[in-house]
Amino acid sequence: GCPKPFPASPRSRRRPEGKVAYGAGPGAMPGRGALCLGLLLPVLLGCGSAQQPGGCPDLCECSEPARTVKCVNRNLTVVPPDLPPYVRSLFITGNPLTRLPAGAFSAQRLPDLGALNLSGNHLQTVDAGALALPALRQLDLSGNALVSLSPQAFGEGGSPLEELALRGALRDHGVVLSLAALLQSGALRNLSRLELADNGLVLLPAGMFTALPTLRQLDLSNNSLVGLQNVSFQGLGQLQSLNLSNNSLGMLWNTTLAQFRSLPMLRHIDLGRNTWVCDCAIEDLVAWLKESDQVEGKEALTCAYPDKMLGKALLKINVSDLNCSVPIDLPSQLQTSYVFLGIVLALIGAIFLLVLYLNRKGIKKWMHNIRDACRDHMEGYHYRYEINADPRLTNLSSNSDV
């Protein structure tokens, strides 16, 4: 702390009228008050320039009134350890940051950190306990190349996280499985918004969203999803918005449509820009579209295959327009064919064994005859070999009449 100014002496507090203080005239030496002021001025300036606790890191921009810290494009390789404790919104983006170790953000030092943006870095690994923050509500990890995501990244207990953005961060299949394990563990039960767009996802792990009872918005757009057979929407009673646009969906099975019907809050489903196959299998989807008000822009949904249906609106399809001459459920038909073939082969084998059993005596006699014939034949060869090998019997072997 800075020293307090010296109190003015009683003599200097009041000066008799008509008298000039000592040293007040021209060329006089400075008085005691001016001397104290001169001594205190450097001290006061030093105290004012000293960095207060919770100062801003060198490579960041801080705003204490807004409780915001921005470390954007600063070539950071680690999280700054001296972040001010007042921060509520933290932006660390565009840096060569590759790993978030345990305790990267101190829960004791950052008790109010509620919004954390780590997008556009080079993050590959998120260790256990790296994001264990008591007030974290929003997290953006988009635009990173995640390779390892610990299921305990948010700590051992539950996290208060409400919004999680992972746009373009799940290109590795192992990370998708780790995320599924994290979601299924119940650590993010408070999640209300989940963004998984731009990740090239083809299939989702089974039961990935079953432990998200408060989820309201789910974004799966701009992926390569070919089906939703493994996806269960049961338990998402609060789901209001589902974005499935710009995928590779060819159809939606009746089980998936039944799940959509069972969600009372789901009123916004985006199915645009998918490759719908307009054959007999799409009949249930067309019927659901005509009766449901859950799909946004359903009038713009068109067929992609076959060629004769290309561009035709799904809502304008009639049963007569569909080509149902080819069986739809080809895998089931093949399975039935394999079972029938196995039964036929088993019957043939049983008949063959029965014939062998009934003719066992004749077969045995036939085998004995073949054995005797082979024996006689071999004895003839042996006899001729003995004659040819004995010089005394040469004349005998040359005379075939003997």
From TrEMBL:
GO terms for biological process: negative regulation of canonical Wnt signaling pathway. Residues 274-325 form the LRRCT domain. Pfam families: LRR_8. InterPro entries: Cys-rich_flank_reg_C, Leu-rich_rpt, Leu-rich_rpt_typical-subtyp, LRR_dom_sf, Wnt_signaling_inhibitor. Residues 1-24 are annotated as: Disordered. SUPFAM superfamilies: L domain-like (SSF52058). SMART domains: LRR_TYP, LRRCT. It comes from the Eukaryota. The chain crosses the membrane at residues 338-358. One of its GO terms (cellular component) is plasma membrane. Keywords: Leucine-rich repeat, Membrane, Repeat, Signal, Transmembrane, Transmembrane helix. Residues 1-50 form the signal peptide. This is TPBG protein.
